[in-house]
Design a protein that fits this description.
2 domains; five-stranded mixed sheet; 6 helices; globular
């Protein structure tokens, strides 16, 4: 082999060794690979883009809180409140329970106030006024059983004065009866001056007294009575009472 041929073979071998070294440098991440990273085309630069994109929905998420969906939620709460109010209204006011408290009772001295007042017309007459001071309505049955002073009996009733219905007094209302004290012409006997008066109340049967009696005061000089003494039935109005 000539010297020239050997020189060419050595040069070719050197070229092959340099190519192999260059290929090895590329494979271990140096050389050309490093130059690509310097140019901004490295994988880490590409990986940063998705991170930036994932941060973008944050404003959109914030908008969802204050946007239409939030208004709808508020409206829903209002609708619930409206429904609850409607339920209360449709239930209506509670009805007062029915009890025996409203049933009338018999009028008597502890639940009434009795006043005895002399009348100028008719003469020799007295008006009895009984006012219901209780909390329930009461019935004034029959007529007042009156006793003047220490009398041993009560005077009779004027049968013609009997009303068509039992007198009923609501709380605060009054019933009336008149008392004919003595004869106007002085024809009756056994007259005397009474200084006190007791009024008894009849029950439903009209034959017995019930409850507490009333003791209306008389004038200081008293009232004159005789054997003509009589009373009317209880009346709903004063005019009916004094018409006898």
């Amino acid at each position: 082999m000539s010297k020239i041929s050997r020189t060419r073979l050595v040069a070719a071998a050197a070229t092959t060794v340099l190519a192999a070294l260059s290929l090895t440098a590329c494979n271990d991440g140096t050389g050309t690979e490093d130059e690509g990273r310097a140019a901004g085309t490295s994988p880490s630069s590409a990986a940063s883009s998705p991170a930036t994109a994932s941060a973008t929905p944050a404003p959109s998420g914030s908008s969802a809180v204050t946007g239409p969906s939030a208004s709808t939620g508020s409206s829903g709460a209002g609708s619930t409140g409206g429904t609850a109010t409607s339920a209360v209204r449709t239930s209506g006011p509670a009805k007062a329970p029915t009890s025996a408290a409203g049933r009338p009772v018999t009028c008597e001295g502890s639940t009434t106030r009795t006043v005895a007042a002399p009348l100028t017309r008719p003469v020799n007459h007295m008006l009895l006024t009984v006012t219901n001071t209780g909390s329930k309505s009461c019935y004034l049955y029959g007529y007042p059983a009156v006793r003047f002073g220490e009398a041993q009996s009560v005077p009779p009733v004027i049968e013609a004065s009997k009303p068509q219905a039992v007198v009923t007094l609501a709380p605060g209302e009054s019933g009336y009866a008149s008392v004919s004290l003595s004869a106007t012409d002085g024809s009756s006997a056994n007259g005397y001056t009474a200084k006190s008066l007791t009024v008894y109340f009849h029950g439903r049967s009209g034959n017995e007294s019930v409850g507490t009696a009333a003791h209306p005061p008389l004038s200081a000089k008293g009232v004159y009575v005789d054997d003509s003494l009589e009373v009317t039935y209880w009346q709903q109005s004063m005019d009916d009472a004094v018409s006898w």
